[in-house]
Amino acid sequence: MSQKNRLQDGGRIDRSKPLTFTFNGDSYQGYAGDTLASALIANGIDVIGRSFKYSRPRGFVAAGAEEPNAVVQLGATEATQIPNVRATQQSLYQGLVAASTNGWPSVETDFMGLVGKLGGKMMPPGFYYKTFMFPQSMWPTYESYIRKAAGLGRASKEKDVDRYDKMNQHTDVLIVGAGPAGLMAALSAARGGARVILADEQNEFGGSLLSSKETIDGKPAMDWVAEVVAELNQFDDVMMLPNSQVNGYHDHNFLTIQQHCTDQFADRAPNGAVAQRLHRVRAKWVVLATGAHERPLVFGNNDVPGCMQASAVSTYINRFSVVPGNELVLMTSNDGAYQTAIDWHDAGRHVVAIVDARKNPQGSLIDAARERGISIMVGSGVIEVQGSKRVTGVSVAPLNDVGDKVTGAIAKLKADTVASSGGWSPVIHLSCHTGARPVWDDEAIGFLPGPTVQKQLTAGAINGVFTTHAALSQGLQAGADALAHLGLEATDSSVPTTEDVTQGKAMALFHIPHNKPTSKAPKQFVDYQNDVTAAGIELACREGFESIEHVKRYTAMGFGTDQGKLGNINGMAIAAKALQKSIPETGTTIFRPNYTPVTFGAIAGRDCGELFDPKRFTAMHAWHVARGAKFEDVGQWKRPWYFPKDNETMQQALNRECLATRESVGILDASTLGKIDIQGKDAREFLGRVYTNAWAKLAVGKCRYGLMCGEDGMVFDDGVTSCLGEHHFLMTTTTGGAAHVLEWLELYHQTEWPEMEVYFTSVTDHWSTMTISGPNSRKLLEKLTDYDVSKDHFAYMDWKPMTVAGVPARVFRISFTGELSFEINVQANYGMHVWNALFEAGEEFNLTPYGTETMHILRAEKGFIIAGQDTDGSVHPFDLGMPWAVAMKKPFSFIGKRGMQREDCVRADRKQLVGLKTIDPNVVLPEGAQGVFDPKAPIPMPMVGHVTSSYWSACLGRSIAMGFVKGGHDKIGEKVYYPLADGRVVEAEICQPVFLDPKGERQHV
Amino acid sequence: MFHIFCPHCGEYREEEEFHAKGEAHIARPLDPDACRDEEWGEFLYFRTNPRGIHHELWVHAAGCRKFFNITRNTQTYEILEVYKLGEMPSVVAE
Amino acid sequence: MSETNQETLEQPPIKLVMNQLPDANVPFESPLHHVELTKIAEHSGSQGGVVFRELSLGLLTLRCTPNAEQAASIEGILGVALPSNPLTSITSANGELTVMWISPDEWLLQVPQDKAFELESRFFAEVSGHVSLVNVSGGMTVFELSGNDVVKVLKKSTPIDFHDSEFPVGKVVSSIFAKSGATICRTSEQTYQLVVRRSFADYLWLWLQDASKEYGLTVMG
Ligand SMILES: [Zn+2]
């Protein structure tokens, strides 16, 4: 066992539970309670990855969500790979397998490192824009090279074996962050009777208290936390969510939380368990108690492993019992960071020096450091560090009063660790997600949440107050405020007592000057993850970028998974200085969701595989499946497309289905057609207003085809509507248009004509609809009903109630094939029975099931349109050659009438629907092909319309097509040409779009 | 994701239950045939699209299927009121 | 043979009322017929956190804005007044009839399957004025979910708030359900009815099995 940096005792780890894990192929040991980061540090791992642009070795900087470098790939098997995991946020578990994502081919000897070291000039800021603009054809090459070298992680090549889930939550108060402020707010809200959700990204509640040596109410802070958590657990209406990152704050207090359920404990979720759950929370009030991130200082070579946030060093020591080095130099601009030197010293390691930029720091922590004999160098800064894979020493120089100039001789100290603190940046990310602009605060030396329209409260360090006492008292207040807004009363609670710590004034310092100009000094990193340096930001400003948003995009500062948690404020301060403005004048970029990367698994939840999208089935679906149907998606419906037999090709099956229908009888499951029951004394008048044709005289027992247009006069749906009673109609719509048509009818009824007495009820699913079509369809129907279905008693475009195969049915004699047809409708609970009976009775007629494709061919042979295929929202009934379906003389100006009479709609050269016969009858035009009148015209040729429907017609022994041609109705007999992508030019003759039985005799037998 | 109070159901529901139907109070001309092309074009295509206060028609598509109006701030996305068809907004732009 | 109003076609009726139930020898097939719930029930454990059952009922959609006279006739037929408060439902004393509020002018009536035609006929005969009653028994089915973990499964499927303070017994809502839709009614402390469209039934059944997996699912035949 070689956890060389592990202390003998202390910390919140369980030394009785050792865990073995693998990093970059080597096996290590840690303890339950470790993060992957703390376990690696315990084992003396300094280099965790290589940087994005310069490929410099990088180590741990932080201990939480703000860690920019320690982004690893997780997963013991291919199927369980997860990229972009912060080692600082990943709990250690037995058998964990992690690998560096940055650094290819290996972290230790990196190929790109060579490029980076050659002066680092290969990738200056704006690199992408400058270098890769041209030639565009090389982009894929560059991109794959850079991505591989930069190591942005990789997705699994196999199906993810874990289960993910989503859950909708409602709460009175959602509290984000379970540090002292969040816990106090939760306690106050819960005691007052509110419904509470408390979410925290860590595996334990406590926040800053987890690594603190403070006391609360006279006991160790974590004892107080344990009591609060125990009390909160008693409330039925309090939901406690540890391991849960609140990642997005959206409109109207809608927030998303990614909860790690099992992936913090195991590579794979145990059987049945959910690995991660995305909570979609609607909160009446939100309390942001998200705390603050410590800002490291910017100085030369500040990215060498061993340079860390001061507070992170304390966290590793106090919470994980790991000291990340032996010789510490602490660089600070404030009192708080002195605690790190004290913790380091108390852990038995050597503090080389505290380097304080202030001339005369005063306060209780400074006294405590002095008492321990720690050397303090005031008025000074660490201007650069030495080392490459680990810090070996530091250069310290005296600074002027404002900290922007080196004023004296440089001293060199030996050290392996440099902890730095430039103060704290409130975690305002979530507050920014809703569009609130952050506000600079000179006192806090940071941006605070800006004014918001959300029902949002804030408490603790997010407000720029950094003591435990302030966090507790603001948390208590936020809880009480939330209760008051909810109309609830706070029970009297008092702020728990804490120890007093007097702190001196901090200095606003971001960028430590070097004795050389920034551009010549060793690299001073601002954004580690995107390799943005102080020199790069100054260059961007010199190149003329004045807006901080532009500087961000030019330099890539705050991009990607990092979202500027550590670097943004430093970057803005450096830009402000370069632009000779103040920070508030320069402003800040804002943060977008998500706060940290969210797995695709959590986003998808169970909306994948079979459950990706709802599937709608008819009552006969099981039969279609058993019969080997191929299916086509029409909206969410699964409709039989065709029914191949034996080894038939699709075309062979279609030919057989078409011929069987035209020669004997075929059957189509038409249940998916939209059906709307319409009742009321004004139903007839209403139909007259929404359809283009006349409905005033349609008698009971009759059916009629209608076209529906928008106010612009363009066709959007069609179908047959039947008169069931004087005040009772059944409308049918296209399969895909059903919901839209129903909403359309309600829209006009509710907004324009509420005085009309009419009601609409969807009955689409209620009726199973089976269409038998072909010369033998009557004989087939006669076998199953006693009703007289002869030509004289049951005419074309009539409907009759009758009993079919023992089931009451409505039978409509309408035809979409041009053949004698009957559409049988029965309540869907009996659809399968009737369908089976039809097949039993139909055997002697070779009853042949057909699907949507044969339906399309048969109707195209007759020139019947399909709304949505032969229309696209830009064609009116006259374009379609259907003037017979428009009754211009109706008294009410029906929907579409005025629109189709606009100047543009009556042009003679509009694209009009015509039939198309290829000169070579064996060539089937591709649908979508664009026609031209002159195939020799120079490119770009003037296009005159496209092919909308095109098939091989087995009945006609040739191809048939329909399509739009400019002025086509006056060009019957003329030629149009279709230049195809493969170089062929197909010549076609413009014709009437009725290819079979133009007199319509077959359906009238 | 808006949280919308349906005035017919009498409670707040999630945006996914609703469909937005564009600007409210766009009445169909009573005599379309008497409209000049320009007037009809105005009715069909032209909308105010303001920055700030906006009156919108919505329908509770997955709920009661009733249409109603919303006054919404297009900058902040605040919904300032909901009101039934036939009613007029009480919050209007200056 | 079943009844139809075929002979009345000679004098055109205002509306078509039709008994849609077949001869007794014609099998009834619910939307989940192919699933064979009875067989699954034999093998499903009884300890699941979620209990599933399909109910086959007569369902009718009533559209009306009742005036006093209509309200009285309707109450006369149903034996209960139409619930006029949004999102409420009412069940008759004998439990045979439930009326769910859907919209200010729409209710869903649940009756035994063989009572649908009778109800429709009586409405046609007894309720004057503007009213529409449509048999939708074939177009919908009813899933009954119960058990200790039932609310968790509902929360995975719909954005409705099921907290006791927001969703008491008797409340009914129509909402998104698993990217489809459902009318959801709390019929007892731990029992919820989902009225779903027939065509979505198989998909929703798959969804519910999957959503219940972590709690265990008991199927009742
Ligand atoms: Zn509603």
* Shape summary of chain B: globular
Fraction of residues in helix of chain A: 10-25%
CATH superfamily of one domain in chain A: FAD/NAD(P)-binding domain
For the record, the count of structural domains of chain B works out to: 1
Summarize the structure in short.
The complex is a heterotrimer of chains A (1005), B (94) and C (221). Chain B is mostly beta strands.
What does the secondary structure layout of this molecule look like, with pairings?
The complex is a heterotrimer of chains A (1005), B (94) and C (221).
Chain A: E1 14-23, E2 26-32, H1 36-42, E3 49-50, E4 57-58, E5 71-74, E6 82-86, E7 97-100, H2 111-117, H3 127-131, H4 139-150, E8 163-176, H5 180-191, E9 196-199, E10 215-216, E11 219-220, H6 221-233, E12 238-241, E13 244-250, E14 254-260, E15 274-288, E16 292-294, E17 307-309, H7 310-318, E18 327-332, H8 338-346, E19 350-356, H9 364-371, E20 376-378, E21 380-386, E22 393-398, E23 411-414, E24 417-421, E25 424-426, H10 429-433, E26 439-441, E27 446-448, E28 456-458, H11 468-485, E29 525-527, E30 532-533, H12 534-542, H13 548-555, H14 568-578, H15 583-586, H16 600-604, H17 621-626, E31 630-634, E32 637-642, H18 650-663, E33 666-669, E34 674-679, H19 683-690, E35 703-709, E36 715-725, E37 728-733, H20 738-752, E38 759-762, E39 767-773, H21 777-784, E40 799-804, E41 807-812, E42 821-827, H22 831-842, E43 848-849, H23 852-861, E44 911-918, E45 930-931, E46 945-953, E47 958-966, E48 975-979, E49 985-991
Parallel strand pairs in A: 1-7, 8-9, 8-15, 9-12, 15-28, 17-24, 18-19, 18-24, 19-20, 33-43
Antiparallel strand pairs in A: 1-2, 3-4, 5-6, 5-7, 10-11, 13-14, 14-15, 16-25, 21-22, 22-23, 26-27, 29-30, 31-32, 33-39, 34-37, 34-38, 35-36, 36-37, 39-42, 40-41, 41-42, 44-47, 44-49, 45-46, 46-47, 48-49
Chain B: E1 3-6, E2 11-14, E3 19-23, H1 37-45, E4 53-59, E5 67-73, E6 79-84
Antiparallel strand pairs in B: 1-2, 3-4, 4-5, 5-6
Chain C: H1 37-43, E1 50-55, E2 58-64, H2 68-78, E3 89-91, E4 98-103, E5 106-111, H3 116-126, E6 131-135, E7 140-146, H4 150-157, E8 172-177, E9 180-188, E10 191-197, H5 201-212, E11 217-219
Parallel strand pairs in C: 1-11
Antiparallel strand pairs in C: 1-7, 2-5, 2-6, 3-4, 4-5, 7-10, 8-9, 9-10
Helix pairs in contact in C: 2-3
Bound molecules: zinc ion.
